[in-house]
Design goal:
Strand order of the largest sheet: 2-4-3
Number of helices: 23
Helix content: 55-70%
Order of helices and strands: HHHHHHHHHHHHEHEEEEHHHHHHHHHH
Largest sheet: 3 strands, mixed
Distance between the termini: 21 Å
Radius of gyration: 23 Å
Low-confidence stretches: none
Shape: globular
Number of strands: 5
Number of domains: 2
């Protein structure tokens, strides 16, 4: 699917310049894409740092508006990058940076998580890590200053998010927290680090842990007393966030009603498959039966990691032979257990030169030691191939046609997660989920994603509950999700806290899947007998990451 070389244009140069700017402003972006020139630094999260970022956004947008596209590649870049820059300015005007705190994707997590991606194969790489650890206090202090300005201006996150992030910060600050363990277990291969380097690393880790302790104190004291009492953000902010995560404008009220209908359809499909597994059984009874099947259970994270890797490797090999043109560069997907215990499964893309492969991470909650393969098989396809790894990795490969921004930084959650859910259903159609138990696991995930559409829009817009018992509340959200997932209380708690603090993101999965399927069906209708599904996938993925409105325009004209 990779294209031949294309001569860079003025639009490409503007996009490349924007990547350079992002890496300069937030060196973690460079770490993510494999540019290590700023790996000793962290972003400036202070109000002054944010103003520099907004000034750069305005400058890039002006340059893009003045450029003349020369071909379709340029036109897509102008449309998509322009939309992203404009939306970032709107989010700034709405003051979202002043309340940027949630349990999964805010500076508190970003500062810590960058260390997961840094190379550790040589002493000089650990030296860069030690220096970046020393930068953590400045980054945290800047972040506190930003949140403090929000307090002064009356723009604050919800109290629930403040409490939860404070607890996360406390865990990072502990003597046996992430930073201490990270430093104490540092090695180059099997060899210990030189003594001076180990002291540097230990000192940086202690500084970083102390900074997270200060963050926890600020959150528990100053911010908690000023935090908002409502979990919902309201229609105006929600509409901005929905556009941010989808790259598309949707009718929120229609989508809420569709979500209710889609949830009912998922429930009916689950109930039908449950009766295939155990004649006459309910979904709960079928789940209990499967949970008691030792042949479908893994014990310990080592077994989980091995199963993930074997399942992924098999899918890559078989799909490359029959369904997709998978370049050699992305036939390696590394499956890992994450160094945190927050819950969740996620993917990180390969570096631009592929020295760091694409990776699937499993953040296993504390105390969880058993895993059910019937629940998780579809997750491997979602995060790996044909899901995120094929989609994101292919964009990185396509350097002959796409600029760096299009290959590695463009796109939205709706585009990426929508494709991943689309990929799950695709694997069902290809026969990879013929076992009713595996299909039930896939539907368990699809049901959860449908429930999230209803929950997320419902609670943030204050819609009427599906049961007719008044408007949505944060407390009802926990009850509602518990009714629609077969997961433990800790998982439900983390997930709902995530939705309440990250408005618009959770629905982007299922809404994105809906838009991907609508586009496929419309292209098939237009092309009639000449429609080739593999060619459709090739054309769509060849665009790289884009917003869903841009994807629609590119595929339908």
């Amino acid at each position: 699917m990779a294209s031949s070389e294309r001569t860079p244009t003025d639009v490409d140069r503007i996009a490349e310049g924007w990547v350079d700017t992002l890496v300069e402003l937030n060196p973690a972006v460079g770490t993510y894409i494999g540019r290590t020139s700023h790996d000793e630094r962290l972003a400036d999260y202070s109000p002054a740092g944010h103003e520099r970022s907004i000034a750069a956004t305005r400058e890039a947008l002006a340059a893009l508006r003045a450029a003349t596209p020369v071909d379709d590649v340029d036109r897509i870049t102008v449309a998509d990058l322009g939309s992203e820059l404009e939306l970032e300015l709107e989010r700034h005007d709405a003051g979202l940076h002043l309340r940027d705190l949630n349990v999964i994707a805010s500076p508190s997590q970003d500062i810590r998580e960058v260390f997961d991606l840094m190379p550790t194969d040589a002493p000089e790489e650990w030296e860069r890590i030690a220096t970046r650890l020393e930068a953590v206090p400045g980054a945290i202090d800047g972040y506190i200053a930003m949140l403090r300005e929000g307090v002064q201006r009356g723009v604050v996150p919800a109290a629930r998010q403040v409490r939860e992030v404070a607890a996360q910060a406390r865990r990072n600050a502990k003597p046996d927290g992430f930073f201490a363990i990270f430093a104490s277990t540092a090695r180059v291969g099997d060899a210990e680090l030189p003594e001076s380097l180990q002291r540097h690393l230990d000192g940086g880790a202690a500084d970083a842990a102390s900074a997270y302790g200060r963050l926890a104190e600020f959150l528990e004291g100053e911010l908690q007393s000023s935090a908002g009492s409502h979990d919902g953000v309201g229609r105006e902010i929600y509409a901005l966030q929905s556009r941010h995560f989808l790259g598309a404008v949707i009718d929120l009220d229609e989508t809420y009603e569709w979500g209710i209908e889609e949830l009912a359809r998922m429930v009916a499909e689950q109930e039908s498959i449950a009766r295939e597994i155990v004649p006459g059984a309910s979904v709960a009874e079928a789940v209990a039966f499967l949970d008691g099947d030792p042949s479908r259970k893994l014990h310990g994270t080592d077994a989980l990691k091995q199963w993930m890797q074997e399942t992924s490797d098999r899918a890559v090999a078989e799909l490359a032979a029959t369904q997709f043109d998978i370049p050699a560069e992305i036939r390696t997907l590394e499956c890992l257990i994450a160094p945190t215990q927050e819950g969740g499964i996620y993917y990180t893309g390969p570096s631009d030169d592929f020295t760091r492969p694409g990776r699937m991470w499993w953040s296993v909650p504390e105390g969880v030691t058993e895993f059910d393969t019937w629940r998780e098989l579809t997750t491997v396809y979602h995060e790996g191939v044909p899901g995120h790894h094929l989609q994101i990795g292919q964009a990185v490969v396509n350097r002959g046609k796409l600029n760096t921004w299009r290959r590695q930084l463009a796109g939205t959650s709706g585009h990426a997660e929508g494709w991943a859910l689309y990929a799950e259903r695709l694997m069902e159609g290809l026969g990879y989920l013929d076992d009713p138990a595996d299909r039930l696991g896939m539907l368990d995930g699809q049901r959860m994603r449908a429930a999230r559409v209803v929950l997320d829009i419902g609670v943030h817009l204050g819609k009427q509950r599906p049961d007719g018992n008044g408007p949505w509340t944060g407390e009802y959200a926990f009850e509602f999700l518990s009714q629609n997932v077969n997961m433990n209380e800790g998982f439900v708690r983390f997930e709902v806290n995530r939705y309440l603090g990250w408005p618009g993101q959770a629905p982007s999965y299922k809404v994105g899947q809906r838009i991907w399927e609508q586009l496929r069906d419309e292209v098939a209708r237009r092309e009639g007998a000449g429609f080739d599904i593999r060619d459709f996938h090739r054309r769509a993925l060849d665009l790289g990451g884009v917003g869903l409105d841009t994807l629609r325009g590119a595929l339908l004209g």
